[in-house]
Every structure is written in structure tokens, then in C-alpha cells.
Amino acid sequence: MKYIDEYRDPNRVRALLAALQRATTRPWVLMEICGGQTHAFLSHGLDELLPGGIELVHGPGCPVCVTPLEQIDKALRIASRPDVLFTSYGDMLRVPGSTTDLFTVRARGGDVRVLYSPLEAVLLAQAHPDKQVVFFAIGFETTAPANAMAVLQARERAVPNFSMLVSHVCVPPAIRAILDSPENRVDAFLAAGHVCAVMGYHEYVPIARDYRVPIVVTGFEPTDLLLGILAAVRQLEAGEARAENAYERAVTLEGNRSAQSAMSSVFRTVDRKWRGIGTIPMSGLGLRPEFADFDAELRFEVGDLTTQESSLCIAGAILQGIKKPIQCAAFATQCTPQNPLGAPMVSSEGACAAYYRYHRQAVPSG
Length: 366
Ligand code: SF4
Fold this sequence. Notes:
Blueprint: H1 10-23, E1 28-34, H2 35-43, E2 54-61, H3 63-66, H4 69-79, E3 84-88, H5 102-107, E4 111-114, H6 118-127, E5 132-139, H7 144-156, E6 162-169, H8 171-180, E7 188-192, H9 193-199, H10 204-211, E8 215-218, H11 222-238, E9 243-245, H12 257-266, E10 267-274, E11 278-287, H13 296-299, H14 315-319, H15 351-358
Parallel strand pairs: 1-2, 1-7, 3-4, 3-5, 5-6, 7-8, 8-9
Antiparallel strand pairs: 6-11, 10-11
Bound molecules: iron/sulfur cluster (SF4).
């Protein structure tokens, strides 16, 4: 297959692994930011082929995993209303809130639908003027431009019954929060290629400099992942700390200016709570005041919720690279994809789901 096979070429993979072996003289801990990269590492078995000194820990870049419980409970409350047609990406339906999930709301008669684009929600609102159509806008800088475009379209088409429940998060403040933690173990980061395709990687330049930590923009195919690791290890071994681009076919320093412009016209930076981690200052995106008419939190007055997390779930420690899924006592026992206690077991990008699928044999017995 053109455009894929060349990045999965076994000979290139072997050559990169050999180069990595030669470059590595001591142990290093690398964090891949994105849950998509976690799944790619595990599904290709690359984590087991790395030189013994290199440890991968898994970062917070799973949008479903970090969406705070409060926002999910707000979604559940809004979706339960008879006048609401609630729309979302598919993974969000199974994420447990304090007491239930969106699937259950749908099973009880709520009109909850899975969409592939927020623009579909605007069209649904036009087609159902008797309903309030709400889109659950979650995710990182990757999904924010399309969500911004949906709001702009709703305003241009004067669609009064469309609104958004916004829970966007941004990567750079999360990297800073991980590095500021006294428990931090990360020596270098593999930045998410698709986020950087939108945002560029200029935001990582001052972080790499200020914290003396290599940050390497990395793609998702086997050779992309190994190139990212090799670049990070070479920096570490040389005592360097730069933001570096190992995904040049998709990413530039500046990123996609048109997408950034759409984002900044609709969203502003706000403090945001991350599930399991807590509030990270100025780490999220919220609607600008001029788009308040499209803010579902204001429209449905759901600001006063208290929440209850599972006491067993250690997702916060996993999302910060402090623990691995197999160190959770509930992993593959009380918590499975069929009966998830936490979001990382639900999401297609969740680290716990990846370990359950590819690493269940690593679970300690007894
Ligand atoms: S295995 Fe389940 S309970 Fe444990 S951290 Fe992962 S999602 Fe939470």
C-alpha cells in the first residue's frame, strides 16, 4: 500500500532499532504524549523491541481520558432532557460518569447520536428546529479547528437551536505540568504529530529550553515512532535539549495558520480540569464571550455539579507517566473494556485499553 508500507518496512525498522541500540548507553524514560502513539507502539510490538534501557511511559494525550468527570456529568444531564438531541464522537458514549454513561441515557430513551463531524450537528439542528442540538466538543488542538468551524457555520446560518458543550485541552500546559511535578520521571517527550500538524511545534521550543528536556515531534507509523525515539535518545546522550521535528512530511514549525485562526476566533484559553490530574491553569479552550449564545453550559445551566470518581482508578498517575496500567489493582479484573471503571479502559486511545488488548499476559497473577 503506497504511503503506509514504506513506513512499516521491516528492513528500515531493523536498521532504526540497530541505530537505537548503538546510540543508547544508559537508561532513559521517554513519554509518548498521544494515546494513538501508545496503541501504535503496543500493536506493532515495538515497545518489546527497544533497547533494554529505554522505558516508554504513556502521556495524557487521550482526549476521552482527560475529559473531566464534571463535563461528562453535565453531558449526561443535558442528554437526559426530552427537548435535547445530544451528539458526540463514539468513544464518549461509554465513558463512565459519576453514576451512568451516555449509552445508558440513550437506552432509557434519550436522543443521543454518534457523529463523525461537528458540522453534522449543525445540519441536524437545521433539520430539527423543534429540538436543542448539542455537540460534545472534546479533544486537543486536533479537533478544535473543526469544532470552531461548526460554531462559525451555526452563526453564519443563524441556527439558534445549536450549542456546544466545550471541553478542549491543550498539550503544552500539560507538558509543563508533568515537568513541574516532583514525581516526574520523564527525560524526553515524543510530541504528537497530528497536534503539531495543526499547531506547529514552536510552542515546544521554550519548554525544551527552559526545562532542559528534548521534545521530538513524532508520527504514528513504526518507522516514524522509532525515528522520534532515536532523535530523542541522541539528544539525551549528547546532553542536548531541543524541540526537534522527526515528522517533517506532516509538520512545520508554524503549523496550519488557517486552522489556528479559526480556533482563536471562536475559542479563548481558559483554566481546565483534566480527569484524574486536576486543574491545569490556562490549559483548555472555552468559547469566547461573543459566542456565548452557543455555550451549552450557559443554555442549560449545568454549572453546579458535584462528582464521584471510582476510588480504584489510578488513571491520573497513568496519564502523567507515574504508573503503568498493569500497576492498577483493578486492571483486567474489576475494570475491563466491557465494564470500565475509568476512561483509559474505554477509549480507543486509552493506555489501559491498549494494555488490555496487547499486554494482558503481563498482569501479575494472584
Ligand atoms: S485499569 Fe481501569 S481502574 Fe485501573 S487505571 Fe485503568 S481505567 Fe482506571
